[in-house]
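Data availability (excerpt). The following record was deposited with the supplementary files.
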Amino acid sequence: MLSLCIAVLATMALPVCAQMFPPPPPDARPAKVAAPFDMTGYWVSIVTEDWRYRMRTPPTGDYPGLFLNPQARQLADAWDPERDIAAGEECRGYGAGAIMRAPTRLHITWTDENTLKIETDAGTQTRNLRFGNPENTDGAGSWQGISRAEWVMQGQGGFGSGGPPSSGSLKVVTTDMRPGYIRKNGVPYSSNARVTEYFDLVTEANGDQYLIVVTLLEDPEYLLAPVLTSSNFRKQTDNKGWNPTPCTVR
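Predicted structure:
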């Protein structure tokens, strides 16, 4: 009986507590100003796992660890690189659903106060991450799709690993992509796929900085379960090694 009374009193107190401790107002500052960390500059991917899928094109039918439905398996088993070349579809493995797994360098800049641009030298791709509620639909139907971004501060969820109250993650949700490949050997994702990414900055004691990108790829058309990956990039002091190259199926 006592516990019931306590529960009732707690429920009655909720409106009072909500008035005493309202949620913080949304940050009205431009995204560039509100950023909890600076991710601009040049970064190089650190490939320490999934080597055979990331550093070369796997053979047809090599897709363990992915939960594909029968239709996706049929497409992957029938993959023919020469057919992609003939159709001008060499960039299928460089879309937003897979590009962060490529052995690539990133060049990240602000194009305006609410748009981050990520360029990759692998496949010479460009993706614009737009903050707020952008009406701009540029990118719809392209390899990189439409990416909507927000800063997720500590205490609001996400993949952040702790830190001072001002720390946080960059959350990016990408949709409206041109159909592509999860892996370059024809493992498909569709135009209905959704990519959710969390970008976190880690600084080592010696000053080295790493960008950790956790990616969740969901696709109701081809996947029986989401694909979860984590990709690491090390900060460079300059653009050494930056070498934009075209897409290739090899």
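Summary of structural features: Confidence is low (pLDDT under 50) at residues 1-14, 157-166.
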